[in-house]
Amino acid sequence: MLVGVMSDSHDNLEKVRKAVEIFKERRIEVLLHAGDFCSPFVFMELKKLQSICREAFGVFGNNDGDKLLLAQNSSGFCKLQNGIMKLELDGKRIAMMHYPDVARELHDSGIFDLVIYGHVHKKLVEGDRKKLLNPGACSGYIADEATVALVELRDMSVEFVKL
Q1: pLDDT tens string 63-117
Q2: What is the pLDDT of residue 54?
């Protein structure tokens, strides 16, 4: 199963559109967003993935002020929550949050096959069978480049894609 992973889109609709194009081309099955969508209108672009994406999940970040409107605009496409989201996809246990403070501890616990976080705007992948992943900042703001990640859950391979 191919999963598209992004974080810190910060209303940069040009970069979100590029991410959506890449995710469509690669035919992701699930979208994971590690927070800082910012404004609810970002879902106008993300919902364009509904034709190929069977599920989407996201967590709120520190810049996601209007959580109610974000949740309303994501309705029918993306399940959102505060804090740590735990889920299972294709037999893999996944934890996702915005903040890095406990991400390493969750990864080091060995409980999860994939731990995803955002916030710091720096792409990172560590681990072999069990991965710690930051997809970088989709927006490209305060980052060297705008990036998203693709994770193939079958073999836990990670590919960063520059937008």
Answers
A1: 998 999 999 999 889 999 999 999 999 999 999 999 999 999 999 999 999 999 9
A2: 87
Output the pTM of the full model.
Answer: 0.97
Contacts of residue 123, Cβ cutoff 8 Å, sequence gap at least 6: 134, 135, 136, 147, 149, 160
Q: Which of 15, 91, 23 is nearest to 52 (CA)?
A: 23
Both tokens of residue 122?
A: 């720096």
Q: How far apart are CA 10 and CA 141, in angstroms?
A: 8
> In sequence order, what are the residues at sequence separation of 6 or more whose Cβ sits closer than 8 angstroms to the Cβ of residue 122?
134, 136, 137, 143, 144
DSSP, res 47: G
CB atoms within 10 A of CB 55: 14
What is the topology classification, in CATH, of domain 2-162? Purple Acid Phosphatase; chain A, domain 2 (3.60.21)
Say how far apart CA 59 and CA 63 lie, in whole Å.
Answer: 11
